[in-house]
Amino acid sequence: MSEFFTYEEGELFAEKLAIARIARTVGTPFYLYSAAALGARYRRFCEAFAAERPLVAFAVKANSNLAVLSLFAELGAGADVTSEGELARALAAGMPPDRILFSGVGKTKRELAAALDAGILQINVESAPELEALSAIAEERGEAAPVALRVNPDIDPRTHAKIATGGREHKFGIPWREAISLYRRAVELPGIRPVGLAVHIGSQVVEIDPFRRAFERMAELVKALRQDRLPIERVDLGGGIGIRYKDERPLDLEAYAALVREIFLRERLDFAFEPGRFLCGPAGLLVARVVYVKESGERRIIILDAAMNDLMRPALYGAWHEMLPIRLSSLDAPPPPADVVGPVCETGDTFAEGRRLPPLAAGDLVAFTAAGAYGAVMSSTYNSRLLVPEVLVSGERFAVIRARRTYEELLRLDAVPSWLSEAARQAATAS
């Protein structure tokens, strides 16, 4: 919880709005973001690096809603994008091209060309083949592509295996021992303008030591490049700063900033960062309604109208999200632990097992906390369920920033070919 989500007379508010009021208007489930919380998280990050004035490039993969991106653009943020679609969203939200970084291991030639068309600040190249492909594209256009080599520092970030990216076994980046030779190659290639190095060791990192070891390795590479008189003006130190979901002790941001200064103080470099979860995770909720409370033998099961297709993290990572009642109960004795599930036809559609919760009955509203990152952006229409709305709150105002799809819109995504009946007859008679 935070100062932006609080109980008033037993009812949960987002800023100055009762969440139950929003639920009556837009229906459930829905995502809710606090504009004030998003702004506060961004300002907190910038203030930690006030002296350095780095590029803070919001990781669009964490939350790609245009209203959220537009708010960050108004605050002065840039964008870290990993696809042509994310690039289009960042530009549509008003993020200046010279504040956009393009990361990702599998950029297609079309995506590389789109980055050059947009005139973005930096393309984070992650392999020798990608570097060669970009060189050919840029040379043909008579341009020089601004490139940073993303380094894999072979560091264990001590996070969930599926969101760790800095180990030698991971698909990301260039092995750190090969970075110098590839940087020399980049200097020689036509159409390439090397500008720096990039690193990102993983997501939801809550210890400072992995960052220390990764950044020290990066500083060694910077010194080696400069000893070889190779041009380097910027280091992109990625993101990955963890937040509190359950009982984690979040990373001390001031200690993180002090670490960066300690390691790179003498290097006279520009800095870029790619925070995503840190900026938007705590600023969002997923609001759902209890459909049934089911007693199954000795198990108590709370069935919600939200499902794994709406919030994938528990099914995908075994992730914990705290669940809060929208209205506090007056009952003193809490009921026994309960499993909390959704209606999707998968056993994996389970949000929690044996969770101790306040008394809940059919019709009650609950909120999943820390759902502003990797929530709506990872949702799907599995089981032909509709994508849920997203709502932005500011003070006493709210707006639907993504409307709930209709079934008619969902069906229009498909097409039945005119020759299908003939194909069916042929299939029925085939030997």
Chart the SSEs and their pairings:
Layout lengths: L4 E4 L2 E4 L2 E2 H8 L3 E5 H14 L6 E5 L6 H10 L2 E4 L2 H9 L7 E3 L6 H10 L3 E4 L2 H14 L3 E8 L21 E2 L3 H10 L3 E7 L9 H20 L6 E3 L16 H12 L5 E4 L3 H4 L3 E13 L2 E6 L8 H5 L5 E3 L12 E4 L8 E6 L9 E4 L21 E5 L2 E6 L4 H5 L8 H10 L2
Parallel strand pairs: 4-20, 5-6, 5-13, 6-7, 7-8, 8-9, 9-10, 9-11, 11-12, 12-13, 15-17
Antiparallel strand pairs: 1-2, 2-3, 4-14, 14-15, 14-19, 16-19, 17-18, 20-21
Helix pairs in contact: 2-3, 5-6, 8-9
Outline:
With 431 residues, the protein is an alpha/beta fold.
Textual characterization of the structure:
- It is built from 13 helices and 21 strands.
- The model has no long low-confidence stretch (mean pLDDT 93).
- The longest helix has 20 residues, at 208-227.
- It has helices at 19-26, 35-48, 66-75, 84-92, 109-118, 128-141, 179-188, 208-227, 253-264, 277-280, 313-317, 407-411, 420-429; strands at residues 5-8, 11-14, 17-18, 30-34, 55-59, 78-81, 100-102, 122-125, 145-152, 174-175, 192-198, 234-236, 270-273, 284-296, 299-304, 323-325, 338-341, 350-355, 365-368, 390-394, 397-402.
- α2 packs across α3 (66-75), α5 (109-118) packs across α6 and α8 (208-227) packs parallel to α9 (253-264).
- With 431 residues, the chain is α/β, with parallel strands linked by helices.
- Strands 4, 14, 15, 16, 17, 18, 19, 20 and 21 form a nine-stranded mixed β-sheet that branches. It has an eight-stranded parallel barrel with strand order 5-6-7-8-9-11-12-13, surrounded by five helices.
- The relative contact order is 0.15.
